[in-house]
Write a structure and sequence with these properties.
There is one protein chain. With 230 residues, the chain is of the alpha/beta class. Helix content is 36%, strand content 22%. It contains 9 helices and 9 strands. It has helices at 3-12, 19-32, 68-76, 91-95, 112-122, 142-152, 182-190, 196-200, 222-229; strands at residues 40-46, 62-63, 66-67, 82-87, 101-102, 127-132, 157-164, 167-178, 205-209. The strands form 2 sheets. The protein has a 7-stranded mixed beta sheet, sandwiched between helices. Helix 1 packs across helix 2 (19-32) and helix 5 (112-122) crosses helix 7 (182-190). The longest helix has 14 residues, at 19-32. The chain starts with a helix and ends with a helix.
């Protein structure tokens, strides 16, 4: 039995600790804390214009014989309690994937934050995690690692980050956040702002390093889609 466990048991018996002993106990409790899968809703972001792909609906483009959004859904679903899709076109095609589909509440394809807001408004769990529809190979432990870092750093938002040219590059559409941020996001959007990094900077954020940058490779163009498939 560890000394830390002894102290936890002594605390249960009514003893009070201060100073370094209190800090030790806090670390023990924090390390044991976790977010249960059932407390997380997954959201596939598929509401973009697809302008760099000639205006096609990216989430419905084929990758290894299936729509990319379906790949993302099948990869995310085991990592969360429930899942849904944000889409603004071809809603019946997305609904056929078997999960709820919600369009933006803002007009004119207002960007990923609009999709995020639509998800937060429909989310019935304490946490929401988002992934884009055009990155079909993201890590199978994505949500687990984001959740642990969010808890460990008492953050509001945990975002994936990958190494690039010796620096960490954040992947802001791969993020886990508290659903209590909905009010802040709606206020930000209604003020006319759209940049995701400006909004996230208003909150406690933690970047979570993933060394395999290729796992986050997306298909914004037809050429990139062909490269993913090769």
């Amino acid at each position: 039995m560890s000394a830390a466990t002894d102290k936890v048991r002594q605390l249960d018996n009514g003893l009070v600790y201060t100073g370094w002993q209190s800090a030790l106990l806090n670390a023990v409790f924090l390390s044991r804390a976790m977010i249960h899968t059932q407390d997380i809703t997954g959201l596939i972001l598929a509401g973009g214009r697809g302008s760099r792909m000639g205006g096609v609906d990216k989430g419905l483009q084929s990758y290894q014989g299936m729509p990319m959004a379906l790949h993302s859904l099948m990869r995310l679903a085991p990592q969360v309690g429930c899942a849904m899709i944000n889409a603004n076109r071809n809603l019946a095609a997305y609904e056929a994937m078997g999960v709820p589909v919600w369009p933006d509440n803002l007009p004119d394809f207002a960007g990923p934050l609009a999709g995020l807001a639509a998800g937060l408004e429909r989310c019935e769990t304490p946490y929401l995690v988002t992934v884009p529809c055009d990155c079909p190979r993201f890590p199978l432990d994505l949500v687990e690692r984001l959740a642990q870092e969010l808890v460990d750093h008492d953050a509001d938002i945990a975002m994936a980050a990958t190494p690039q040219d010796g620096k960490l590059r954040t992947q802001p559409v791969f993020c886990l956040m508290k659903t209590s941020l909905l009010g802040s996001l709606l206020e930000f959007l209604h003020s006319g702002q759209r940049k995701i990094d400006v909004w996230t900077a208003q909150h406690r954020c933690i970047d979570v390093r993933f060394d395999d940058a290729q796992a986050f490779a997306g298909a914004n163009t037809l050429t990139e889609l062909q490269q993913l498939s090769s």
